[in-house]
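Take a look at my tokenised protein here and describe the backbone shape.
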Amino acid sequence: MTILHPMFAMIALTAVVCCLLLVSRVPSIIRHFGRLQGAMHSDELRPRLAKRMRFITDNYNHLFEQPVLFYALAVYLHLSQSDDVLQVQLAWGYVLLRTLHSFIQLTSNNVSARAVVFIASMIVLLLMVVRSGLNLIAA
């Protein structure tokens, strides 16, 4: 198993949330088609969205924040052929934590629970970065 497997799992998670976003938004877009100028700026639209729709939107946005570093690191590890067993295990741990983060945000949106999972995922990601840096220095 290579780093590409957990990387693809993270891509799949993002695709699932993208589908949720589409399913939650398309009916409203169809209903209000021709009168969508009020949605020009997300900061103006967001307060008018139902709570559940905001959860989906926020989670979708979050999947394009911290995980970008994960994707870049995964590509680096793959291209440098330094995706050892521990890096792959850490990557799976990261994906599991991000999946849990999405689940929490899309359901209860318990911010305390989400924060703990976010911090744990960040620690795992930083461990991966540190290991990669140390391996690069040692090479």
